[in-house]
UniProtKB/TrEMBL annotation:
<keyword id="KW-0560">Oxidoreductase</keyword>
<feature type="domain" description="Glucose-6-phosphate dehydrogenase C-terminal">
    <location>
        <begin position="199"/>
        <end position="477"/>
    </location>
</feature>
<dbReference type="InterPro" id="IPR001282">
    <property type="entry name" value="G6P_DH"/>
</dbReference>
<keyword id="KW-0119">Carbohydrate metabolism</keyword>
<comment type="function">
    <text>Catalyzes the rate-limiting step of the oxidative pentose-phosphate pathway, which represents a route for the dissimilation of carbohydrates besides glycolysis.</text>
</comment>
<comment type="pathway">
    <text>Carbohydrate degradation; pentose phosphate pathway; D-ribulose 5-phosphate from D-glucose 6-phosphate (oxidative stage): step 1/3.</text>
</comment>
<dbReference type="GO" id="GO:0050661">
    <property type="term" value="F:NADP binding"/>
</dbReference>
<dbReference type="GO" id="GO:0006006">
    <property type="term" value="P:glucose metabolic process"/>
</dbReference>
<dbReference type="Pfam" id="PF02781">
    <property type="entry name" value="G6PD_C"/>
</dbReference>
<dbReference type="InterPro" id="IPR036291">
    <property type="entry name" value="NAD(P)-bd_dom_sf"/>
</dbReference>
<keyword id="KW-0521">NADP</keyword>
<feature type="domain" description="Glucose-6-phosphate dehydrogenase NAD-binding">
    <location>
        <begin position="17"/>
        <end position="193"/>
    </location>
</feature>
<dbReference type="Pfam" id="PF00479">
    <property type="entry name" value="G6PD_N"/>
</dbReference>
<dbReference type="InterPro" id="IPR022675">
    <property type="entry name" value="G6P_DH_C"/>
</dbReference>
<dbReference type="GO" id="GO:0005829">
    <property type="term" value="C:cytosol"/>
</dbReference>
<dbReference type="GO" id="GO:0009051">
    <property type="term" value="P:pentose-phosphate shunt, oxidative branch"/>
</dbReference>
<keyword id="KW-0313">Glucose metabolism</keyword>
Length: 480
């Protein structure tokens, strides 16, 4: 009988190799996720974690760097668990552009597997490294550490390309090294519990799903508002900008799941097929879709710096967009004619990430002109789902007013462990579950939607970004 290696669950004696172990992503996200899975009893304690980076570090230094970012366990006894967890960790120092370090890493891995009696290795390689060295590391991995007699999985962090062509170049570069089913391309927003919840809310509640269409929905809004800027991250953010950072990936994922047709099954490929089908119905974006673009300057009181004042922004004439608002359409039977507004910005007046489904006004019946309903799934600052309903207030006067039907997860599940995005995604990789990872054809279509817009906004005829104060609502041209 042939075993489907794509869905084999990694359990005992799995090898997890973290490249870029000394970096910010590893410190703030990957290590805390691994510890969370271990401390909650999800990760088998026989797992071996190899950390690889160029820096001269010890395991204790790695622990010191990441400890403050690790969540307390729901069962307590964190110090003992941290002690036990870091006994599973080994650090290997090496360069990324020569075989020497990879040969050393292979020796460490094979010694561990021999000691444990492993005959069919299960290995996960996590690339928490800059995109320009993805293919270099992948090539050295394939030549030196790939388990021909086992199962290998490779987790690749975003950004996966800068546009359609560079994304395809990366895909072509990986193709001779790893099969597509071996590559797990991360968009950490897909690991959020909220997106799984959005699937359930839509398709497990027929009364709601029946009204999510052009007959009932007036407008869809997807917001990403941050109250802080790019402080200290200018080296990363300046060549990327707000569209590549959050719109082409995170916000598009939210919108896709909120608007796609119901998958034929609750299975990885069925879900991803439905997403790609929806993306193919989205219009290609260009100049006509732009509502407003901007770059933040000093706050009105002068206390908070402008984008260009950041020491890590080297180009002091940079036109990098820290704010963009666009409108877009989905050209299919369900959504044709429903305007979609996508807004993302830094250094704004609030912290808010959410999708809003605004219902049409009721023009007839007993209550014509009543305030329309609105359904909201919020990701930040709180995880919650609410819908505004119209009803009458207590008393003798039948005045209508709106009340929210609200489920705030921090209240409903206050004592439960809710996995963070990276915890879920790493766990999914152990399980061989690719539903929350990005497939090549999905990546292709999403870049095809946004690349013409990026070419326009970064080209010679692009409008100058409007300057807006740090802490404001953004540029003046935004839709109300």
């Amino acid at each position: 009988m042939t075993v489907d290696t794509q869905t084999v669950e990694f359990k005992k004696n799995t090898v997890f190799v973290l490249f870029g172990a000394s970096g910010d992503l590893a410190k703030k996200e990957t290590f805390p996720a691994l510890f969370g899975l271990f401390s909650e009893g999800v990760m088998d304690p026989s797992t071996k974690i190899f950390c690889y980076a160029r820096s001269n570090l010890t395991v204790q230094q790695l622990r010191d760097n990441c400890a403050q970012y690790c969540r307390p366990s729901t069962t307590g006894n964190d110090k003992a668990k941290m002690d036990q967890f870091f006994k599973m960790v080994t650090y290997v120092q090496g360069n990324y552009d020569t075989d020497v370090g990879f040969i050393k890493l292979r020796g460490e891995i094979e010694a561990f597997e021999k000691e444990r009696g492993v005959t069919e290795p299960h290995r996960i390689f996590y690339l928490a490294i800059p995109p320009p060295i993805f293919l270099t590391v992948a090539s050295h991995l394939k030549n030196n550490v790939y388990a021909e007699n086992g199962i290998t999985r490779l987790i690749v962090e975003k950004p996966f390309g800068d546009d359609l062509e560079t994304s395809r170049e990366l895909q072509r570069g990986f193709k001779p090294l790893f099969k597509e089913e071996e590559i797990f391309k991360i968009d950490h927003f897909l690991g959020k519990d909220d997106l799984k919840r959005l699937l359930a809310v839509r398709f497990a509640n027929p009364f709601l799903g029946a009204t999510w269409n052009k007959e009932y929905i007036e407008q869809i809004e997807v917001w990403f508002k941050e109250p802080f800027g790019a402080e200290g991250r200018g080296g990363y953010f300046d060549p990327v900008g707000i569209i590549r950072d959050v719109m082409q990936n995170h916000l598009l994922q939210i919108l896709t799941i909120a608007t796609m047709e119901e998958p034929v099954a609750y299975e990885a490929e069925a879900i991803r097929d439905a997403k790609v089908q929806l993306l193919k119905c989205m219009e290609t974006l260009g100049p006509k879709n732009v509502v407003a673009t901007g770059q933040y300057t000093n706050s009105l009181d002068g206390k908070l710096p402008s984008y260009l004042d950041d020491d890590t922004v080297l180009d002091k004439n940079s036109k990098c967009l820290t704010f963009t608002e666009i409108t877009m359409d989905i050209k299919n039977e369900r959504w044709a004619g429903v305007p979609i507004v996508m807004r993302a910005g830094k250094s704004l007046d609030e912290d808010r990430v959410e999708i809003r489904m605004k219902y049409k006004k009721n023009a007839y019946g007993m209550f014509p002109g009543v305030t329309p309903n609105m359904f909201v799934i919020q990701f930040h600052p709180e995880r919650k789902i609410y819908m505004n309903f119209n009803t009458t207030a207590p008393g003798f006067v039948d005045n209508l007013h709106q009340v929210p039907l609200d489920m705030t997860y921090s209240k409903k599940y206050a004592n439960d462990w809710v996995p963070e995005a990276y915890e879920r995604l790493i766990r999914d990789c152990f399980l061989g579950n690719r539903a929350n990872y990005v497939r090549d054809d999905e990546l292709d279509v999403s870049w095809a939607i946004f690349t013409p817009l990026l070419q326009y906004l970064e080209g010679p005829n692009a409008p100058a970004p409007e300057i807006y104060p740090y802490g404001s609502t953004g540029p003046k041209g935004i839709l109300e």
